Amino acid sequence: MRSLEGRPDLCSINTATLGHRQPIAEVIEAVARHGFGGIAPWRRDLEGEDVGNIARRIRDAGLAVTGYCRSTAFPAATPAAAAAALAENRAALRDAARLGASCFVIVAGSLPPGSRDLGAARRQLEDGVGALLGEARQLGVTLALEPLHPVYAGDRSCLCTLDEALDLCEAVDPGSAGGVGLAVDVYHVWWDARLAAALRRAGQGRRITAFHVCDWKVPVTDVLLDRGMMGDGVIDIPGIRRAVEAAGYAGKVEVEIFSARDWWQRPPEETLATCAARLERC
């Protein structure tokens, strides 16, 4: 496993970690100033911005774009709504390519309002990812499926385990043609008894495209917005990272923390400095 001591350049900051409070230009400057090697912006950070200009700012700051977050939910109540979601995702995928992002993060979505048919939601997800695949290959941007913790199965993601995500990869992109991979987020996968085997399986297909870290606090006061800084919870982050890198992942370690009552209330400079220190230690 690579040492991160004194190597923030091997790490990336997902802009959600800073709470989306500053203009993206200021975030880019701050991330670069702290020595990080990458940034992963959200679509909301680029609203009203010139994507080409932001791409130049990121390049000029010496940062890689480790991912672009995130897809519009694929499952929808009507064909028209599904088509609109696909159109939004196509546009976001093109923006990811303009940014030079290594991947476009796919957060599946789940049951549309009024539905109880989880199987239908999963079929819509597979159809939607399959529909994006050709353009993703042409643009050179991997679709990174990010399974979420099962607590989100009813609303945010019908994709809950790495094995489910790998099954979907193989269904739409057999033989690992490079179009579909995984975003492995420790917050969502740490609990899975099959995690080690799933990571080995992912390694066989070279499917891991992104690796996100934070921590699971005990107790968690809000499963969405109370993620912990690395070292403040119960996740064996070094153990998972060791397995991820043994599976062939050599990209940057990306910090993604949703923390409405704690880290999003602190000065961004403090959050970034703490991220750098915890990445070395935890």
UniProtKB/TrEMBL annotation:
Domain Xylose isomerase-like TIM barrel: 28-271
Organism: Teichococcus globiformis
A family per Pfam: AP_endonuc_2
InterPro entries documented for this protein: IolE/XylAMocC-like (IPR050312), Xyl_isomerase-like_sf (IPR036237), Xyl_isomerase-like_TIM-brl (IPR013022)
Isomerase listed as a keyword: yes
Protein name in UniProt: Sugar phosphate isomerase/epimerase family protein
GO MF annotation list: isomerase activity
Protein keywords: Isomerase
The UniProt record lists the keyword Nucleotide-binding: no
